[in-house]
Every structure is written in structure tokens, then in C-alpha cells.
Amino acid sequence: MKSIEIRDVKTYVEKNIGNFHSKRLQNLEKLKLSKILKRKNPYLFKAKNILTAQDFVKTLLDAHLSSQEETIFGDFLEGLAIFINENVYGGKKSSAEGIDLEFTKNDVRIIVAIKSGPNWGNSRQISKMKEDFKKAKRILRTSDSNFHIVAVNGCCYGRDKKPDKGDYFKFCGQKFWEFISDNQNLYVEIIEPLGHKAKEKNESFLEAYSRIINKFTLEFSQKFCIDGKIDWNTLVKFNSSVSKSK
User: Is 174 a domain residue?
Assistant: First the structure.
């Protein structure tokens, strides 16, 4: 086992954080108003008493982007976790379905499914993860039936007061980063490097975001407003009618 130097973490982040910003911007520029409208709940917007086209579009877009960014940034953090673990324990990206990281610690083989935060999935998704753990264990034990394997659901932020889930462990936040790096302060140390060129990248994003808001507001007003008011009947029909809407 080796220790990870924070300068190596900084170097990794500086080389790779640009991918997060690029994907974030690319996803924004590819958006179509009609597709987002069909994925969101129009009744919720009505219940929130949204009255203007711009407020509607901004709320719609922000909700969509928040979900997208969580996924994109989750992929980045997964890569960072694997990089750190590789340097400390010689871990590697797993080829097993549903498993992100494999490494050996204290003569125990660890298989890890990495998620962004503790509340990442519903009961069906958690059951799928458990099944993936079982399959991975069976495959790893084909060469040695006595091979000791521990499954871990690692979450990049948050807490879980009862990490022992019976057939796997759930480590969140500080506990997760310490587990894969043997550094109890790593969860704090990685926050500063993540801001590399954030201001510069955000300016490009905000310029594109403002352009999309203006574009979608005009389109929404033309299709779903009458005399300056949102036509909720037309909007709900577009979202939910059995007839095909383009």
C-alpha cells in the first residue's frame, strides 16, 4: 500500500475536470424544448402557480440540468476514485457488470459499486446492485472457492449511520474516501482542486444557458401561450394526450 499525494490528485483533476464541463455544455446545446416538456410533470408546474413563460422554461430547464449534471459529475468522481485507489492499493476499473472498482486490502478482495450520494436508487435498483455483487463474487470464486470477497456500495458524499447492510457495506462521504485511500482527510482535500478553472468554464456555460432560456421562452410562448397567458390545456395535451404530438 502507498499513500496518495494531493498534488497527484490536483494533476488528475486539472487534466480531467474539463471533460465534465465540456459534456455539461454539450448536453445543454443539444436540448430540445419538446423533449424536456414530455418528460416533466405539467401538473406540478401548475400547482406551483408559475405564470410566465420565462419562469416556466427556467424551472423546467434547471430541473433537467440538475439531474443531468449529477450523472455527468458522478462519472467524473468515479474516475477520480478509481485513480486514487489505483495509486494506493493498485485497484482497477472492474469488468464485472455493475461493479466499478476492484482492489485487494488486507488480503480481502473488495468489489465496489460507486454512486454519487446515499439516496441514489429505489428498491429495484438496490436489488439489482445486490444481484451484481452476487454474480461478481461467483465469478471471482471460480479460481478459489475460499477467496474472501467483500462488497461495498461507495457513495461520494453524505452519511450512512448503519454501513453494514448484511450482504454488503455502504460507505458514504468521508468513510468512502478514507476506505479507498487510507486517508481520513481526503474527502476535504479533494474539494479545492475541483474548482480548477470553474469560473472560466461557468462563464461559457452561462452564456449558452442564457441563449437557451431566451430561445425556449420564445418557442414556448408561441406554442403554449394565448394572449400572454400559459394555455395549460394545450400544454397538458402535448404532454399526456394519447394522440401523437410532435
Answer: yes
Give the position of cell 488486507: 106
Cβ neighbours for 169, distance < 8 A, ≥ 6 positions apart: 150, 151, 152, 153, 163
How many domains, in total, are found in the chain? Answer: 1
- The parent domain of residue 18 ranges over 6-240
Domain assignment present for residue 1? The answer is no
Left if phi > 0, otherwise alpha if psi is -120 to 50, otherwise beta: which for 173? left
Would you say residue 245 lies in a domain?
no
Q: Which three cell numbers stand for residue 88?
A: 494506493
Question: pLDDT value at position 244?
Answer: 60
Per-residue pLDDT reduced to its tens digit, 60-115: 999 888 888 888 888 899 999 999 999 999 999 998 999 999 999 988 999 999 99
Work out whether strand 92-93 and strand 108-115 pair parallel, antiparallel, or are unpaired: unpaired
Cα distances from 179 to residues 41, 85, 245, in angstroms, run: 40, 9, 50
CA distance 242 to 109: 52
Helix axis angle for 53-89 and 6-29, nearest 10°, is 150
Residues of the chain with pLDDT under 70: 1, 143-145, 244-246
pTM beyond 0.90: the answer is no
Q: Which three cell numbers stand for residue 121?
A: 436508487
In-domain check, residue 160: yes
- Please give the Cα distance from 121 to 165 (Å, whole number): 15
